[in-house]
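SEQUENCE WITH STRUCTURE:
===
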Amino acid sequence: MDYLYDGTFEGFLTCVYLHYYEEKATGIYAAPAEFGGAAFIGAQPETGYQQRLGVPFRLTETDAEKAAKVYEAIPKKVSDFCLRRCYQIFLTSVPDKDNINLQYLRLAFKLGPGVDSLHSHPVVYAAQRAAGKVSWEVDKLSGLLRFSVLGEQPGILYGPVTPDHDIIALLGEHFADRYKEEAFIIHDLRRGKALFYRPDTKSWAIAPLQKKDLPAYSAEEQQWQRLWKHYFDSIAIKERINPRCQRNFMPVRYWANLTEFSGNPLDR
């Protein structure tokens, strides 16, 4: 039985519950639009699911109670680390991530806390590689993400990003601690959603957001951007420019959202 879910983490965990308590899963997949999927924040427009000959599929309805039982069982029967890795795998854009996650959880429930010491096991290795892509990108963007001020003072801090993986939820804690007293938005341009932080409640939430719905930069912010670009260009020593080293620390795919390499990100 192939289980198709709505693309949420709770939906995935619901499928894991059904795998154990109803019918074994031959695969778990985010439901394509033609099956009623993509009705969730950050949905990919095409999941690539192809129904297989002789393998039935089931559109599953997310059940918060069933999902909670699996969520609580993972740290209880395996470890907190296993739960974090499971969520990281869910956030990755690696092909067939849900089945990597399913195989990993099946092995984890079978072997218990020692599962993550089996680094050479093909199932653990695949899970480790997928989760590692997410943790690497979170670490990179925690240092590279740039904020600008939207609107007139005091304004709102705005940080556009185009991550390979769906990671803005993992950036919330870091930047909420760094900017405790500032309202800010981390905007995932690739997925059309954003993390909104409120300093009065010290909380954040994720919701859909499009560039056209944002106010313009203030005149003062634009002046600061021009000054920063001028400083960046003038301080460089032509004879010591090292593009390879620069690319290692600042991957080219993130340059579009760095002020010194780009124009106004709201204009793109």
